[in-house]
Amino acid sequence: MNILLINHYAGSNIHGMEYRPYHMAKEWVKQGHQVTIIGASHSHIRTNQPTIRGKWTEELIDGISYIWIKTPEYEGNGVKRFLNMLSFVKELQFNTKKLVEGVSPDVVIASSTYPLDIYPASAIAKKANAKLIFEVHDLWPLSPMLLGNMSPYHPFIMIMQKGENDAYRKADKVVSFLPKAKQHMIDHGMAPGKFHYLPNGIDVEQWNEATEIIPKEHQEVINQLKKDGQFLIGYAGTHGIANALEYVIEACQLLKEENAAFVFVGKGPEKEHLMKQAEQKGVNNLYFLPVINKKAIPDFLSRMDALYIGWRKSPLYQYGVSPNKLLDYLMSAKPIIHGIEAGNDIVKEASCGISIPPENPEEIATAVKELMKKTEKERMQMGLNGKNFVMATHDYKVLAEKFLLIMSD
């Protein structure tokens, strides 16, 4: 089967996020399928941008054919990012014949972080007489409306809304990262039988091969805390507004009489503000450590007694969440404190920790105390529950096989 996957922000093991297209394609290639991934030359979430030679650059990575479309660079979420999107979609739209002749796809996947890519994907599928699959990462334009307070009558939102509605109508199948999004999609024109839920995944093999040790600076801090008898709760990830980390600072104040400390590893736009906030409040049981290599994440998580992840309250989450970071947590076999109010809760489903309401310092502190009271054996069992769950349901080997069944149906 010839599979053409369009994902504006597609990455790889060389370029960094976004990883899903790469991991799916790698598994499909192993099974004998031909896979071509088309991505933009510039993405704000990649660690390394591809080297570009002209308008179209072809690259072979682990048997996967990549085509990089040259697009303008941008920062943030302003006009330049929208021009980057339009440049990518326009170039695809004007070259549908070239792609049909070059790839001869049996399946075209619009792996969509925004819905405008459905138009070139649909044109390619129609010319190639191929099956069209619309893969939804986030609900656009609902996400910028609810998280960015954008008006439904903003021209950008209206364009995206038309794209979303057309995508549900044009696609033969709709694959959603979000388990509870079906009714929303039906309300916007999708036939109910098109819906398939396929969550984010993790490469279990790659995780097991990630054996890098954390830097000496990190080791010294953690070793000293352990020597002092501290119960360590770790957080590894972005320090951004969406991560609701300021509530941990307040929780630390409530835990000042306990032998418990939080250890944050990572970077992000809110990190400096969070550090100042912790200093102003005299918090001395929260440690901010520099970002570490992805391959050292398993080592960091293994040194913690428990892990924390929190979300903000948002009506958007009623459709479900599918965070990559949480899958890393489950693979580490550590109990998890999960601050969430959403349509799904993996921690609760896997019985691998304590789920609490979001944006609630008192609940965070109570959950920490509850885990501290449990025996080491009880905490180990929680962690193993999570690891067994993620390996059975979220390994890319499992997800890639399920996706192939959707394509073949």
From TrEMBL:
Output the SUPFAM superfamilies linked to this UniProt entry: UDP-Glycosyltransferase/glycogen phosphorylase (SSF53756)
- Known Gene3D superfamilies for this protein? Glycogen Phosphorylase B
Tell me where in this chain the Glycosyltransferase subfamily 4-like N-terminal domain is found: 16-206
Q: Which residues form the Glycosyl transferase family domain?
A: 224-388
Q: Which InterPro entries match?
A: Glyco_trans_1, Glyco_trans_4-like_N
Which Pfam families would you find in this protein's record?
A: Glyco_transf_4, Glycos_transf_1
| Endpoints of the signal sequence | none
Q: Which CDD domains match?
A: GT4_WbuB-like (cd03794)
Q: Which PANTHER family does this entry report, sorted A to Z? A: GLYCOSYLTRANSFERASE, GLYCOSYLTRANSFERASE (GROUP I)
What protein name does the entry list?
A: Glycosyltransferase involved in cell wall biosynthesis
